[in-house]
Each structure stands twice: as structure tokens, then as C-alpha cells.
Specification:
379 residues, alpha+beta, 10 strands, 41% helix
């Protein structure tokens, strides 16, 4: 067990010592493919698999360092447009370079491009904007009409997609393990939700608060996909990144909210390490305290709540999660038990004492977080 990370059955933990100073806006470098997946892949004997993964890891490590420096210095506030019910999208072609944003290839209202990566990025940004607007009345990432920018064809054989604090960036994948990262709409929505979190609860990207940050992106990424497909909670696959893996990979996606730990089990990638309950909480200092791994626990809690309530998951369950994310009571260093208590309170505030509150409470109990009231506010 790592000395700087610990948790008990109800989700309490000692603080990681590498948190940024309080009061800063945390514009973490957030990628859809976790470092542990790329690290495993980089050690493959087949160089066609290992080399792109290693280059992606090196690139991402450099970007994380740059993002930390930017965060410490302070990030200038982006100038937003007047709030509108219409998105303002701009898609750029990075032309396999790493200089951003690249060449503008499609603006808001322009005709479709002959490049399907451009069109998928444009549509995905629109689908994310639409879900947040129609379900929650939110106008863009910052709720003030922030323009949505994205760059496609980033670098060469780049096995990731990321939100850099200002825009979306998509790699084409190596074609061996990963396909074009614009293919799954939930990947786009996941990364854009990091922006929503950045402008609201500003969850620190460390330990349990970082896992909550990742979980919020998985939750709303899945909800955007369900909204696009018109799926109910019962009909949804609850997978993140379905369609991203090539046929040579034994797996269906990057993560599963329905069954954490089952998204892939591959000779090269290894086995999906996500836990679904606190019994299997992973103690590590890697990946900022396991933010991509332990996010499986709050992910599964949302799945349990949403399927217990039924219907469209972006309605009651999604509304409760959104209320907590944006309500102002969620501390930037919140832990799982803190978030759980706030969801129970939010369910009561919006719906009263009824099935919504019961479903939320039982969902958290289902992942091993109980006796919530005893933990709220404990530091």
C-alpha cells in the first residue's frame, strides 16, 4: 500500500500531499485513456503496439507538467460569448502536428466536411451542448456561452483524446489497438464534462476528489450517448468508449458503469482494474491516486441509482448529480462519502422523501458507502 493514500470502507482517506494550493482553478490535463492502459501497452513485445503507446505516454506526461505549471501561475479567464441556446463550434485540423489548434476546417453552421473526423467532432460537441441545455438549462461548458473548439488529427498515431482546459483534442489512434477517438460520442462528452467540472465544483484531480472528477465525466458522457440514441436506463449499455477498440482487442470499451472491471481482459492491455465497491478500493499513488481506477465506485453508484429509478437516466438521477456538481456545496477536495451525502440531500431537496432519495441512498450502500450523515463535513 502506498504511504500517501489510504481509505476505509466508507470512503475516508488520508490526504495526498501533492495537491495544488487552495483557491486555484484546477485545469488538470485530463485524458480518456488512463496512463495504466498505455503503460501496459508500451511494454508489449510488438513494437507496432508499444511504440505509439510509449510516444503517447511521453506526450501526456509533458502536457501534465505544462498544465501544472499553468495552474500554479494562474489561468487567464476565457472570454465567453453572450449566453445562447445555440452552440458556437469551431473544428480545426492539427494535420498530425502538436501545435494547437491547427487549421480551421469547419465553423458553426458550415456545411459538413469531407473528413468524417471533423464531422463527428462537430456533431459530438453539439450533442453535449444539447444535453446540458435541454436537461439542465446549462448554456455551454461555463453556462455563459463559451465557444466549443476542437482539434482533430492530432500528432501521429496518438492514442488519446483530452480536454486541455480550453479545448478538445482528438488523436487518430494507432489503428492497432485504438481507432479514431472521435468515433464514440461519449468520449467527447466525457472530456467536455471535465470543463463543466472545472467551471463548477472545481474538483481537485487527486485521490477521491480526482476519482469523482473522472466519474462525473463518465456519468455525463454516458448520458449524452443515451440522449443521442434515445435510450432509457434499461436500454443503455453503460459503456465508455464502445467502438474505440479494434477487433484485435479482447474487450468492448474502456470502462463500464454497469460492471466496473469487465470492460476488457486482453493479453496486451491486461484486465480492466476498476473496482465496483469500496471493498476493492485501489490504494496507489500512481495516476494521481488512481483517479481513473477508483472512479468505478461512484460510477457504479450512479448506475444503480439510475436503473432503480428507470426511465431516462438524464432526468431524475442525472438531475440529482448535476445539482450536486453545480450547487456550490461540493468542496473541491470532496471524498466519496461527502459526495454521496450531498446526492441524498439533493434528492430530498428536489423530490422530497420518496423513491428518488431511497434509490440514491441504496445505490451508495450498494457500493459500500453507508452511514453517510456521520461522514459529511468530517475532515
Amino acid at each position: 500500500m502506498d504511504a500517501n493514500a489510504n481509505a476505509n470502507a466508507n470512503g475516508r482517506k488520508t490526504r495526498l500531499t501533492t495537491r495544488p494550493a487552495r483557491g486555484h482553478r484546477h485545469t488538470a490535463f485530463c485524458t480518456i485513456v488512463p496512463p495504466h492502459v498505455l503503460d501496459k501497452l508500451s511494454r508489449a513485445e510488438d513494437t507496432s503496439l508499444a511504440d505509439p503507446a510509449r510516444r503517447t505516454l511521453e506526450h501526456d506526461a509533458l502536457q501534465r507538467t505544462r498544465r501544472r505549471i499553468t495552474t500554479v501561475r494562474g489561468v487567464p479567464a476565457a472570454r465567453a460569448a453572450a449566453p445562447s441556446d445555440k452552440p458556437r463550434r469551431t473544428i480545426y485540423d492539427a494535420q498530425h502536428r502538436t501545435s494547437l489548434p491547427g487549421r480551421k476546417v469547419r465553423g458553426e453552421g458550415d456545411q459538413a466536411s469531407g473528413d468524417e473526423s471533423v464531422n463527428r467532432a462537430y456533431d459530438g460537441l453539439g450533442a453535449t451542448f444539447e444535453l446540458f441545455l435541454k436537461a439542465y438549462g446549462r448554456r455551454s461548458i461555463d453556462d455563459s456561452g463559451l465557444p466549443l473548439n476542437a482539434s482533430v488529427h492530432y500528432s501521429e498515431d496518438y492514442n488519446n483524446a483530452f480536454w486541455d482546459g480550453e479545448q478538445m483534442v482528438f488523436g487518430d489512434g494507432d489503428g492497432e489497438v485504438f481507432l479514431d477517438f472521435t468515433i464514440p460520442v461519449d468520449v467527447m462528452a466525457h472530456e467536455l464534462t471535465h470543463g463543466v467540472t472545472q467551471y463548477t465544483a472545481n474538483l481537485e484531480y487527486f485521490g477521491q476528489s480526482g476519482a469523482l472528477n473522472e466519474s462525473m465525466s463518465d456519468v455525463f458522457g454516458s448520458l449524452v450517448k443515451q440522449h443521442v440514441l434515445g435510450q432509457s436506463a434499461e436500454e443503455a449499455d453503460w459503456l465508455i468508449g464502445a467502438g474505440l477498440l479494434t477487433d484485435r482487442v479482447t474487450g468492448v470499451a474502456l470502462r463500464s458503469l454497469k460492471a466496473p472491471g469487465t470492460a476488457y481482459d486482453d493479453d496486451v492491455l491486461g484486465k480492466d482494474p476498476q473496482p465496483g465497491t469500496m471493498d476493492d478500493y485501489v490504494h496507489t499513488s500512481r495516476d494521481n491516486g488512481g483517479v481513473h481506477i477508483n472512479s468505478g465506485i461512484p460510477n457504479h453508484a450512479f448506475y444503480l441509482a439510475a436503473t432503480a429509478l428507470g426511465g431516462n437516466a438524464w432526468e431524475r438521477a442525472g438531475q440529482i448529480w448535476y445539482d450536486v456538481l453545480t450547487g456550490g456545496d461540493l468542496a473541491s477536495d470532496a471524498e466519496f462519502a461527502d459526495f454521496a451525502q450531498l446526492t441524498v440531500a439533493a434528492a430530498h431537496t428536489r423530490y422530497g422523501e420518496g423513491e428518488e432519495q431511497s434509490a440514491v441512498r441504496e445505490a451508495w450502500a450498494g457500493v459500500g458507502i453507508t452511514d453517510l450523515r456521520a461522514h459529511v463535513g468530517a475532515r
